[in-house]
Amino acid sequence: TEFDIVKFSEEITEDMQLIAKQNQQIIYQHSGTSATVILDQSLLRNAIVNLISNAIKYSGENTFIEFNTEITPSLTSICIQDNGIGIPKEDQEHLFEAFFRAHNTGTIPGTGLGLNIVSRYVQLMNGQVKFTSNVNQGTSFTLSFENSHE
Ligand code: ATP
Ligand code: MG
């Protein structure tokens, strides 16, 4: 059913800000003419929470995490960007495999399941996941969904 992605995203931002590190600021912004989308709210929430949790976990204190939503007539896109440790190029092709973790995680804990779940949920919503990442610079994940026109 239809819902307001701005309200929805502001709520997630508030919740995630509570578990962010010292002075890690999550900045949410929306652009577009509309704020209404038709997507599965609980699948989408779970995917976004996974991506923001990673952004928090894999970046340091005193950094910004940008969370953006955009609606154009044809597309809804959701982007989560951090200035964290990044993902080595040779690891990037395996990122959505269950239990896969990149080689630069050091002592940061994790099971390697979050992104596998994100990719499954996005697939269930007929969307796409893309990312770009550079080691020691940061990572950006984008989810995109074609808007349905009845
Ligand atoms: P969990 O199952 O608790 O989420 P995880 O965070 O290790 O564990 P994923 O979320 O699936 O697992 O991520 C897989 C791997 O991708 C991570 O182990 C990490 O190496 C890398 N990764 C994911 N997101 C980021 C990010 N924002 N910055 C840097 N590396 C990341
Ligand atoms: Mg994770």
TrEMBL record:
Keyword vocabulary terms for this entry: Kinase, Phosphoprotein, Transferase, Two-component regulatory system
Entry keyword Nucleotidyltransferase: no
Domain named Histidine kinase: residues: 1-149
Keyword Kinase (UniProt): yes
The protein's name in its UniProt record: histidine kinase
Residues of the full protein shown: 248 to 397 of 397
